[in-house]
Amino acid sequence: MLRTLLVDDEPLALTILSDYVGKVPFLQLVGATTSPIAALQRVQAGEVDVVLLDIQMPELTGIQFLKIVGNRCRIILTTAYSEYALDGYEHDVVDYLLKPISFERFYRAVQKLLPSPGAVSAPEPRQPTDAATAVADTATSDFIFVKTEYRLQRVDLADVLYAEGLKDYVSLYTGQPANPTRLLTLQTMKHLEEKLPVSRFVRVHKSYIVALNRIESIERNRIYIGKAVIPIGDTYRDEFFRRVEG
């Protein structure tokens, strides 16, 4: 169990996150506080494994909190302001959640705390429980933010055609299939896959993720989206055809 502390100056946010933590079997809620100073004392005393941390708070900001605690615990940032994301990633946060936070997005973030798939008795990252699936179908955000060289770029999920992995970079193709727009992002395929809702996207190859509703046709081991021909890898074949054939 990962000892989890919630820090936010909004009581309603603490109530929502407390409920979310209670639904995840490998998290143990050890406290919820509006005081970052009190939270800092608990972290320094070694009582906490994970902190879900707001950024805009009186007494001490989330970024200042990060600088003080260092690597004493793992941090997931929760905020209504996307402009702080780069600061957060510079301090190696686990994830950056933009309010309002759905359970599906929260669930994917805390899955990153696990050392490896199956290392803790918990649902598989890409196969959530029935309850989580229901939330994913109804509460998934319509957009994500991806890190580019100079900024965080909003990407509407409805515009995404497919993603192509390039080592530590990912090319996102969006827009019209006949003339797609390419966006180069500074992240790995694994990180992108964790951000995308499982109900709408599927990994089909070690180097490709596709939007299910943008697939135009499938021929043997190839997927066609506009002019793009995307291979289906052996490792992903059974799961992909299970998804498309129902």
From TrEMBL:
Q: Does the keyword Phosphoprotein apply?
A: yes
Q: Can you give the residue ranges of the HTH LytTR-type domain? A: 144-220
Which residues are annotated with the PTM 4-aspartylphosphate? 54
- Please list every transmembrane segment annotated in the UniProt record, as residue ranges: none
Q: Which SMART domains match?
A: LytTR (SM00850), REC (SM00448)
Q: Where is the Response regulatory domain?
A: 3-114
Pfam families, per the entry:
LytTR (PF04397), Response_reg (PF00072)
Alphabetically ordered keywords of this record: Phosphoprotein
Q: Name one GO molecular function term.
A: phosphorelay response regulator activity
- UniProt xrefs under InterPro entries: 2C-system_Tx_regulators (IPR051271), CheY-like_superfamily (IPR011006), LytTR_DNA-bd_dom (IPR007492), Sig_transdc_resp-reg_receiver (IPR001789)
Classify the source by domain of life: Bacteria
Q: What is this protein identified as? A: Two component transcriptional regulator, LytTR family
Organism equals Fibrisoma limi BUZ 3
